[in-house]
Design goal:
The protein is an alpha/beta fold. It has a single domain, classed as Spore Coat Polysaccharide Biosynthesis Protein SpsA, Chain A (Alpha-Beta Complex). The protein has eight helices and ten strands. Strands 1, 2, 3, 4, 5, 6, 7, 8, 9 and 10 form a ten-stranded mixed sheet that branches. The termini are far apart. It comes from Teichococcus vastitatis.
Length: 285
């Protein structure tokens, strides 16, 4: 058995076929959890589970609670099915996450991706970053972290999972969360698309409820950056902010408001760094 696992909630238009180079060795398994009937996968080295109708997190919640096979793996990745990625990129993501000892992680999103939150987009100045937020689009977990966070899936009755990605970092103490910029994947479809306004209202209300009941929010701060050799770059808060802005210039050119968002999200880290220097214990979030 391989040491890493991809659990993918897929439909008939899923891009998972591009993730595997047939005949090429890899250290991860692919388990498909369809939400509708999909074409036969007989030529693809993967496992196809039974169809579980409904949104992404409805099916994953049911699968993770009914099938204990995922507990045999070191790391588990739960991507959307509209992610364009190569086998080598996925392998490099798992390798980097293990080396950096991330509990919760995601690959950076390629510059051409559809996205909701700038913090998940690839920052060109770093190979990886230690962050306070990992979006539910492409989250990866150390097995122990997924075991700890699994009960939170019950909070999403809509199955869309909005708000869980703000709760998870808080439950993990905002420690060892990472975006791996050096292994970008492409998110190919627009985000936040609802089939009707009523569903959108319920999903947003559910997210607001999760955040309010658990006293958490979207902490899109970057605490540290890593170079390609996986060494943490020693930067002051000002230097870190300057590098973040440089690495996201392509986003700022598209929407200048992004600069203001970056600065605003980094402000709590400046305060935390000042307290740390003074020797006063406090949380960065």
């Amino acid at each position: 058995m391989r040491k890493n696992l991809i659990l993918a909630r897929v439909g008939k238009n899923s891009l998972h076929r591009c993730w595997i180079d047939q005949g090429k060795a890899r250290d991860w398994d692919l388990y498909l959890c369809p939400f509708q009937e999909i074409p036969p996968q007989t030529e693809l080295d993967c496992v196809v589970g039974r169809v579980i109708p409904g949104p992404k997190w409805t099916g994953l919640r049911q699968l993770l609670n009914e099938w204990n096979g995922w507990r045999e793996y070191d790391q588990i990745w739960l991507p959307d099915d509209d992610i364009l990625a190569t086998q080598d990129t996925i392998t490099a993501m798992f390798d980097a996450a293990r080396a950096l000892q991330f509990q919760l992680f995601a690959p950076g999103l390629h510059e051409g991706s559809h996205y909701a939150h700038y913090v998940g987009m690839r920052n060109r100045c770093f190979f990886a970053r230690r962050v306070g937020f990992v979006e539910i689009m492409v989250p990866g977990f150390r097995r122990a972290a997924l075991e700890q966070l699994l009960p939170t899936l019950d909070l999403s009755t809509t199955g869309w999972g909005w708000g869980l990605d703000s709760l998870w970092p808080k439950l993990l103490g905002y420690r060892d969360l990472g975006i791996i910029d050096g292994v970008p994947v492409l998110h190919t479809r627009p985000v936040g698309q609802f089939r009707d306004a009523e569903l959108g209202r319920r999903v947003n209300e559910e997210s607001d409820r999760i955040l309010a009941e658990h006293g958490c929010g979207q902490r899109m701060v970057t605490f540290a950056g890593f170079d390609e050799d996986l060494r943490e770059r020693q930067l002051s808060p000002d230097q870190l902010l300057a590098d973040l802005v440089q690495g996201w210039k392509y986003l700022i050119r598209r929407d200048p408001r992004t600069l203001r968002w970056i600065v605003k999200q980094q402000e709590p880290f400046f305060e935390w760094a000042e307290y740390k220097v003074a020797g006063t214990p406090t949380s960065p979030c």
